[in-house]
Design a protein that fits this description.
Elements lengths: L3 E10 L4 H11 L4 E8 L5 E10 L1 H14 L3 E6 L5 E12 L2 H13 L3 E5 L3 E8 L1 H11 L4 E6 L3 E4 L4 H5 L2
Antiparallel strand pairs: 1-3, 1-4, 2-3, 5-7, 5-8, 5-9, 6-7
Amino acid sequence: MVSTKHTLVALVEDKPGVLNRMVSLFRRRGFNIDSIAVGSSEMSNCSRITFVVNGTPTMVEQVRKQLMGKVLEVVNVTDLTDKNIVIRELALIKVKAPSAARSEIIQIVDIFRAEIVDVTRDFLTVEITGTEDKIESLLDLLKPFGIKELVRTGRIAMTCGVAIEDEESK
């Protein structure tokens, strides 16, 4: 079987140590987590965690079931890989911006519908939200100017149209 990138979304109770136990389960099974994003959910006292991992469908399904069975605070884990989903990521990019290059950088930023969120004498900080491909494209265009610092959230995702729980109950 071919190893592919999988997007897993977990709904978990807000309790200390839950994320650590989940990550440890991935580590014990030899999975490298490409990205992880955690935040509040629509349910009080619950968070939503988005994991991006590489593996075969069988391996990922095994880990999904083990998360559900071994980590008590896990309410639900869904593999969104083959579902119709919306995916976004946020990046902040600090790029060298001497006065001679500023207008060109601003034009590139505008094309990508990104925002300049901080300006100093030597640097511009750009905020971009979008797919991983969109962010990579902007980075490719900004690299020649010199990227001083970069931070990315990792992928967040949700199904289109209906909630995960609604879709699974059908």
